[in-house]
Amino acid sequence: MSEDPSQASPAPWQQLALTELQQQRTGLLEEICQLEARRGQIQKEIEASFAGQADGVARRLKGFQDYLVGALQDLAVAAEQVELVPQQVLMQPSPLDQISGAAASQPLAAVAAAGLFAPDEVLIRERLAGFGGQPDFYADPWQLRRTLDPSGAALLADWFLGQGGRGAQPSCGSRSRNALVAAAAIAILGELYGERFQTLVLASQPERLGEWRRGLQDCLGLAREDFGPSSGIVLFERADALVERADHLEERGELPFIVVDASEPVLEIPILQFPLWLVFAAGPGELTADETY
User: Fold this and answer.
1) Is 103 in the same domain as 21?
2) pLDDT tens column, 16-72
3) What's the number of domains the chain is made of?
4) Is the pTM of this model over 0.70?
5) Could you say which of 52, 82, 112 is where a domain stops?
6) In terms of Cα–Cα distance, which of 152, 197, 187, 147 is closest to 170?
7) Which residues contact 113 (CB under 8 A, 6 or more apart)?
8) Domain limits at 69?
9) Closest-CA residue to 119 (of 164, 168, 182)
10) Whole-number Å distance between alpha carbons of 30 and 73
11) Is residue 293 part of a domain?
12) Where is pLDDT greater, at 186 or 46?
């Protein structure tokens, strides 16, 4: 009986091919296992990462919530200690009489303030006269580098010697001119008091404060570092923050010099308690709301 060919042993080349296929299959299975393991690891890393981020966000939100709650509690306590309606003086085109009337309840203080700079009258008049000469563009910082016109000099002479450094004066027509007048006052006060005083400027909009900073920086040869809480000039958008700063200065034995922009429609009564303040009052032709003057 002859042997069935189908039962015959595979040829050598067939055996070799089969072995190679088995090896390839084994290699593919190993790669698949490695990829599946890698996929599982990546999935775990993603889940852990998102969980960590979510936990961090939750902690930050909780901290901010605690801060808000504490701040609101402090605000509620502070509100119980102040008047519900703050006292204000309306600033009209000619507020000199109004401010004088507001200060009339303290006649002795007004008389004392009027003579505050009397011993320095000669020096003040000499400096104001000198400011009218040629500008000194290379003067030391905190010295006036621009020319002060006669009207500005007369304004400051009245403010120093007539009002004793406490009063309103008519605006010079533009914020840059008012900044020049204030810079001249700062230069004189610096000579009289050295570094024991700090200038506080009040203007209720950032762009107005920006004009003040540029004007004073140009007139006094200052740098940006000279404007800040611990520097010579501090800019404020809110009167309450300015008053708080002035109180701190007086507690440390220093002197605040308060300058109020002409665009401010009201003058907070607490400002009147300080020894040095200069309010620029807008004239009939000046806009006091959203002007660009």
Assistant:
1) no
2) 777 877 787 787 778 788 777 777 777 776 666 655 555 655 565 555 555 555 555
3) 2
4) no
5) 82
6) 152
7) 163, 164, 165, 166, 275
8) 11-82
9) 164
10) 64
11) no
12) 186
